[in-house]
């Protein structure tokens, strides 16, 4: 059975596609979609690419792509054109895969996106039926809604969501295995201007694996940058660990094999939800110790060196956010470095309280796990050093904090904190550092501020 026969779906035949830009992503997308039974017309400004594909040959080097293109061209499912307007008029969905190179300052160069968008918009002006424009090119959040959709509306004289739809459908293809990645995706993400368009674009991937997400357009734009930045971070982290291990005479792969075996904390969703700064008796201390070890062995580790710098910036953002509110009476819920403990060592909440008090704010703190009468040993020494007047600001009375504060800072997800925030009145501004349950609904109201989310 050929690749085309294997992936073809009878229901797909009703939707005709045009693909603008036949580089790496566009060529693979066009060939794979055609192999699934969609009639596809490819469009490119480069006559050499058009000529290659017209003869059933691939303009890109990639595993399996040569055979796939030969089959879909021979079957007639993939054709090519140098006429953008004709391609739009002959299709139901246009997928834009043009390049988005870096601008001189590091930003996004959108000239190819704009040119393709203007061509598509001009064609839509003469088309009576509903059409969906899908951007598969990588672009920063805001590009579609602030630049591309207005250009489409201007060129077509039509309205998005009414006369035509727009979706952002980022690709997650790795060079060397892109055909496999397309047909076995890690996930499918569709940012939609309207439900009709999102449903149609999502249907292009019926039968393929992986979770599916239909989201607002800017979310879909952001996802690809998060993925690639994390991939880059992982490479940098792995290489720096390797350099430190080499300086110590250790087998870095033996070390990392153990690290990778932990799928509960290391290779997992743990610690990846945006929130407040980290603290406690382990993370800051161990990062500092590893950086010191690298320094004394003359190993530069800029990724690791900036972990604590980044953490400090989150703390500063919280302080700046409170200052920007212009209110002086502050109530803080949660003082320990994480819920379920009374450990105050290097707690970012203690540091936040100390900085606000130092700036003259009238602060009252409530943490059920950190009652002054229960502070012993190192905890007592720690808190008396940073907050010597703790007896004046620490209470176990939630109502006392609610009555006192104009600004409530939620630094814990404990049930008592959730209940307290639920009781907050219109006179309170809530600064949520931990994304309390129901935060998405609360943030639509006035007087509710999230940090980092």
UniProtKB/TrEMBL annotation:
Catalyses which reaction(s): UDP-alpha-D-glucose + 2 NAD(+) + H2O = UDP-alpha-D-glucuronate + 2 NADH + 3 H(+)
InterPro entries given in the database record: 6-PGluconate_DH-like_C_sf (IPR008927), NAD(P)-bd_dom_sf (IPR036291), UDP-Glc/GDP-Man (IPR017476), UDP-Glc/GDP-Man_DH_C (IPR014027), UDP-Glc/GDP-Man_DH_C_sf (IPR036220), UDP-Glc/GDP-Man_DH_dimer (IPR014026), UDP-Glc/GDP-Man_DH_N (IPR001732), UDPglc_DH_bac (IPR028357)
Gene3D superfamilies cross-referenced by the UniProt entry: 1.20.5.170, NAD(P)-binding Rossmann-like Domain
A biological-process GO annotation: polysaccharide biosynthetic process
Annotated positions binding substrate: 172-175, 224, 271-275, 279, 338
EC numbers: 1.1.1.22
PANTHER family assigned to the protein according to its UniProt record, in alphabetical order: GDP-MANNOSE 6-DEHYDROGENASE, UDP-GLUCOSE 6-DEHYDROGENASE TUAD
Family: Belongs to the UDP-glucose/GDP-mannose dehydrogenase family.
Protein name (database record): UDP-glucose 6-dehydrogenase
Source organism per UniProt: Rhodococcus opacus
């Amino acid at each position: 059975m050929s690749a085309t026969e294997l992936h073809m779906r009878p229901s797909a035949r009703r939707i005709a596609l045009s693909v603008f830009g036949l580089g790496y992503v566009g060529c693979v997308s066009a060939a794979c979609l055609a192999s699934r039974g969609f009639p596809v017309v490819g469009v490119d400004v480069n006559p050499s690419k058009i000529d290659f594909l017209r003869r059933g040959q691939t303009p890109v080097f990639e595993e399996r792509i040569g055979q796939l293109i030969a089959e879909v061209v021979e079957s007639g499912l993939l054709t090519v054109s140098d006429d953008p307007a004709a391609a739009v008029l002959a299709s139901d969905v246009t997928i834009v895969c043009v390049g988005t190179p870096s601008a001189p300052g590091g930003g996004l160069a959108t000239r190819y996106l704009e040119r393709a968008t203007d061509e598509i918009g001009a064609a839509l002006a003469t088309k009576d039926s509903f059409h969906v424009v899908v951007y598969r090119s990588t672009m920063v959040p805001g590009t579609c809604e602030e630049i591309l959709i207005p250009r489409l509306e201007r060129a077509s004289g039509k309205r998005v969501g009414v006369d035509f739809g727009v979706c952002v459908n980022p690709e997650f293809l790795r060079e060397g295995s892109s055909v496999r990645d397309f047909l076995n995706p890690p996930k499918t993400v569709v940012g939609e201007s309207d439900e009709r368009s999102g449903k149609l674009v999502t249907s292009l991937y019926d039968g393929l694996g992986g979770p599916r997400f239909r989201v607002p357009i800017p979310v879909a734009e952001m996802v690809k940058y998060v993925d690639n930045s994390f991939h880059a971070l992982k490479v940098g982290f792995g290489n720096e660990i390797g350099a430190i291990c080499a300086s110590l005479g250790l087998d870095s792969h033996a070390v990392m094999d153990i690290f990778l075996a932990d799928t509960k904390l290391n290779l997992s969703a743990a610690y990846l939800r945006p929130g407040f700064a980290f603290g406690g008796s382990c993370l800051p201390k161990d990062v500092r110790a590893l950086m010191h070890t690298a320094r004394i062995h003359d190993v530069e580790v800029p990724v690791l060196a900036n972990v604590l710098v980044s953490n400090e910036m989150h703390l500063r953002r919280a302080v700046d956010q409170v200052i920007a509110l212009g209110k002086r009476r502050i109530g803080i819920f949660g003082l320990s470095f994480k819920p379920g403990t009374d450990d105050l060592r290097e707690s970012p909440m203690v540091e936040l309280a100390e900085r606000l008090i130092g700036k003259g704010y009238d602060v009252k703190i409530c943490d059920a796990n950190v009652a002054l009468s229960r502070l012993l040993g190192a905890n007592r020494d720690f808190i008396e050093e940073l907050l010597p007047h703790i007896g004046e600001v620490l209470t176990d009375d939630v109502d006392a904090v609610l009555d006192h504060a104009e600004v409530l800072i939620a630094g814990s997800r404990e049930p008592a904190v959730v209940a307290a925030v639920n009781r907050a009145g219109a006179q309170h501004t809530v600064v949520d550092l931990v994304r309390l349950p129901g935060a998405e609904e609360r943030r639509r109201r006035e007087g509710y501020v999230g940090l980092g989310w």
